[in-house]
Design a protein that fits this description.
six-stranded antiparallel sheet; globular; single chain; alpha+beta; 3 domains; five-stranded mixed sheet; binds zinc ion; 21% strand
Length: 393
């Protein structure tokens, strides 16, 4: 994480002030009062971001969790929006520049690539994003690298730094080149996400997205844009993911695109797991047993889905369904998982009632998955599985 050389240590007083302003905004009852709190909160957060003082922001976000309802969201929204979006002056007048992500859900039998995007593909993607996702007023520039989520900026200041670099790329009408030596290794997992990252620029006050310029109801317009992006953007991405089934989700400003894709990936990984098992073990879905179990830390944290062959006790593969904060324990998540399994062709489904531990392998860190008896086991593909990966133990 880049640190400013003279970064001063921020005190509790500064965090308290951020929380106070966020609470004011969250509890305001009129647009007129909002304006005041928003302006003050924006000033305070901007100062911390510009000082590279991420600790104060993170401390305030921690505190905001214990504050009245919606305080956390008010603060997080402000921090994210000031991180991913900036106003600049240009000869064309005030311009809004925003960082965006175009996520791709993907699975594979071999290691899913992360790589430099060839020049021609950069050009195609930029054209398709301009045509189908962003408004007619938008200029678009992308980063010439297909990222795994672990390779994205890890902090608000790193994200902001990427946006600042893209502002220069937009001005120069070029893509942003990444030095591949600076990119971290991505983990080798069966089902993952890849991201195209970039920035768009619109004159202040103009629409960001193509669906804002349509006259059909908003959700319908958005779905039209997504369908067009999947067709045209998908064709542009295809050459980089040959042999890897994938699905494009809606490109949007950075944080919301990543969050939406995270949520979408949970459902995607269920179908992907079933397809993967079929591809490497030649077992059709109806010969599988899927076991759904809730794993508990302080409360229920995630569901883990173990897959076994027939009525065997070994677990051959598994996938995780992490819960997000607005999903209470009474949300029928297991029902949703069961529906997705059935849609993927799995007919033998067991939902365990017991509270399972959040267990991981001591050797490789892989999560354990429940079998039909409710035991948490390391997933091992059968020895004759047709996989290109290497099983560790
Ligand atoms: Zn292990």
């Amino acid at each position: 994480m880049p640190r400013a050389p003279f970064r001063r240590k921020s005190g509790a007083r500064e965090s308290n002030q951020l929380v106070r302003l966020a609470e004011g905004l969250a509890s305001s009852k009129s647009r007129a009062e909002d304006v005041y709190w928003e302006r003050e909160l924006e000033k305070a957060v901007t100062a911390h971001l510009e000082n590279n003082d991420e600790e104060a922001i993170n401390r305030a976000l921690d505190k905001a969790h214990d504050s009245p309802e919606n305080t956390f969201d008010a603060l997080a929204d402000m921090v994210e929006s000031l991180t991913e979006s900036v106003l600049i002056d240009s000869e064309l007048g005030r311009q809004r520049v925003c960082l965006f992500a175009a996520p791709i859900l993907v699975w594979g039998r071999a290691k899913i690539p992360t790589k430099t995007i060839p020049k021609q593909v950069v050009q195609n993607l930029t054209v398709q994003l301009s045509a189908h996702v962003f408004s007619s007023k938008a200029k678009v520039s992308i980063v010439d690298y297909l990222f795994a989520p672990d390779q994205l900026p890890h902090s608000y200041s790193e994200s902001r730094a990427m946006l600042d670099t893209l502002v220069s790329s937009l001005r120069a009408k070029t893509a942003l080149s990444v030095d591949t030596k600076t990119v971290e290794d991505a983990p080798d997992v069966v089902c993952d996400m890849r991201m195209v990252i970039g920035a768009f620029q619109v004159p202040e006050g103009e629409p960001f997205y193509a669906w804002q310029e349509m006259t059909t109801p908003v959700e319908e317009a958005r779905q039209t844009c997504l369908a067009n992006w999947r067709a045209q953007g998908g064709a542009a991405i295809q050459p980089m993911l040959v042999g890897f089934p994938h699905e494009l989700t809606l490109p949007r400003t950075f944080f919301s695109a990543c969050r939406d894709a995270d949520l979408a990936s949970r459902a995607y990984s269920i179908g992907a797991s079933v397809s993967y098992i079929e591809a490497v073990t030649h077992t059709p879905p109806e010969k599988l047993t899927a076991i759904i179990g809730g794993c508990w830390g302080n409360g229920i944290e995630e569901y883990r889905i173990g897959f076994s062959l027939g009525d065997e006790e070994d677990v051959i593969h598994g996938t995780i369904w992490p819960l997000v904060s607005d999903e209470a324990e009474d949300t029928p998540v297991p029902d949703e998982i069961e529906q997705l399994l059935r849609a993927a062709g799995v007919t033998h489904i067991i939902t365990l009632d017991e509270q399972l531990p959040l267990e991981f392998c001591d050797d490789c860190g892989a999560p354990h998955f429940p079998n039909r008896e409710g035991e948490m086991l390391h997933a091992h593909l059968p020895e004759d599985a047709d996989t290109e990966g290497v099983q560790l133990h």
